[in-house]
Amino acid sequence: MSLWNELERSFHNHSHQKAALSPNGRWVTYGELMNTVNEKVKILREIIPSGSKVAVIDTHPFLEMVHIVSLIRLNVTIIPLATKYGEDRCNQIITHIKPDFIVSSAEQHIPSKVFVQCIEMGTRVTTDENTILDLEIQLDEESKRNGETLPSSFIMYTSGSTGDPKGAIITYQNILSNIQDIISYFKVTAQDHILINRSLSHASVLTGELLYGLISGARISYYTETFIPRRLLRFIEEKEITVFCSTPTVFNQIALDKSKYQCPSLKRVALMGEYLHKQVALQVRKRFPHVEFYMNYGQTEASPRITYLPSRYFTAKESCIGIPLPSIEIDIVDEFGASVDLGAKGELIVKGPNVFKGYWNLPKLTVHKLKNGWLYTGDIVSLGEDGYIYIFGRRDDMIIRAGMNIYPKEIEDVLLEDHRVREVVVFGTKEPKYGQKINVHVIPDEAVELTVSNIMGICRKELASYQYPDEIEIVNEIPKNLAGKIMRKQVVYHN
Amino acid sequence: MINVKQEIINSIKEITVGHDIQEFIEEVLLSDLGIDSIKYVELLVSIEEKCDVEFDESDLGADALKSLGDLINLVNKTLEQKVS
Rounded to the nearest 10 degrees, what angle do helices A3-13 and A61-73 cross at? Predict the structure, then answer.
């Protein structure tokens, strides 16, 4: 079965049931959704050849959902963009991937800077009204050179260690296999009502919420307001939401809200994307004792789920990421790639039908991440005597704050461009509120005055808000090793 | 009687870094103070504690609460309702 076959089967079987809440507040049934998709496919098929790279951007996730499902039918490579992380970030991605097309429901739904960038890259703009720009399709240089066509896939962009985004190629089959694995432990049925409040540009949301929800025939509601726990709780209670996936940071903020909402309809909550501190697990369990909580671990390159912690251990096993999903094989290796002794710490590597095909146009990085079919996660873990996997930190210096991956170099490079900064080091430390927090230490240039406020000013001007430091210190010295290389403080989740 | 503006500024200073006192004019946007969506929620919780109020959720639309002045008005309105 293909991903499209699964979607089509569900749309057919649940045709009279509610599928998703549209931007104007009307429930659209699966049958209506199928008709909308079929109409869209009929038009797009004339314009977009299979194998094309197609970016998706819109003002509401319902509209993005319709584009994405239609494009799956067309077997193209889909690149979901999110305006939430800034137009500059979208443009970095467009420059890197050079999409053949960008799909949106209306021209004015594409931010102006992104629109201009698409024109410059030769990307054809396709909206519900018409194809605005009838340029010749310009295959990028690499495709011409290799004659390479991508398998039917998504390219999901995440932060890269150099500061530039990297696009993981995950095929429709990668995603379908991951959904089939998720079904084995996290049940979603046609009686469920899923709340989605994160961007569809995250693999976790695309696979584990949107596509899994549609395949299960569940109802999907999108929460698009700015996140305010009290209002979200009211939404959950009023709409009788049963399933919700989120990060520990966000769900902890929900659990800390003073209001009386108990959300009796809520049955299952999956948390993922960052380290779960024990006090957070206890807090959320206390606030919602009737809910089954699951801790998931994964990464975009695994489409994305790799392990899960059964609900009964949610508060019992601290720093535990559980057991691998059924079709995933794991090993724990030392720095030379040899399996470590039972119970010893090492890097988690995984193999399975969900493992990605590589990064778009970054062969060196792909070779580093993918060796003989094994995905090197970069996470340091050990296997406990109970047979469960425990996580300790990252092999590299990546910081995971509130579910977002941040590489210190992204922030350091921005600060070093300012002439007032002589040296800088950025590192993560333990912070239960966000998983980890971002620390910045700066040595100013001797000739100028530089305050903490100035440093924050540079960050606010040049960085996305999720990259803003939590702590800034002006220091006289930054520790270096004998070779003169900056020694970052060890990034640890727990001791 | 609490000084609402000062309590809110204290909350902002606790959860963010690097602010000069002259930045805290009522028109200043919370986003310009480096408050992202996560810290925005923390700020509301902190203000509720410091000012001993509980905001009505219908007042909490983030589109209506963009500046320091918006927050001061909200706390004053909530305090007045509490008294009456």
Answer: 120
**CATH number of the domain residue B10 falls in:** 1.10.1200.10
Report which secondary-structure segment, H or E, holds A5: helix A3-13
Q: How far apart are the first and last CA of chain B?
A: 16
ipTM of the complex: 0.87
**pLDDT tens-digit profile of B11-63?**
999 998 887 777 789 999 888 888 888 999 999 999 999 999 999 988 887 67
pLDDT digits (tens, 9 = 90+) for A82-138: 988 888 889 999 999 999 999 999 999 999 999 999 999 999 999 987 654 444 444
Q: Which residue has the tokens 């057919």?
A: A12
Structure tokens at A459: 């960050």
Fold of the domain built from segment(s) A399-474: GMP Synthetase; Chain A, domain 3 (3.30.300)
pLDDT tens for each residue of A338-356: 999 999 999 999 999 999 9
CA A278 to chain centre: 23
A226·B55 Cβ contact <8 A: no
**CATH class of domain segment(s) A3-327+353-359:** alpha beta
Task: Give the distance from residue A36's alpha carbon to the nearest chain B alpha carbon, in angstroms.
Answer: 32
**B34 vs A234, A256, A460: nearest CB:** A460
- Phi, psi values for residue A128, rounded to 5°: -65, -30
Subunit contact A452:B38, Cβ cutoff 8 A: no
Residues of B in contact with A470 (CB under 8 A): 17
C-alpha dihedral sign at A116, A121, A122, A123: negative
What is the rounded CA–CA span in Å between residue A256 and residue A225?
19
Tokens 């794991």 locate to A330
Query: Any chain A CB within 8 A of the CB of B21?
Result: no
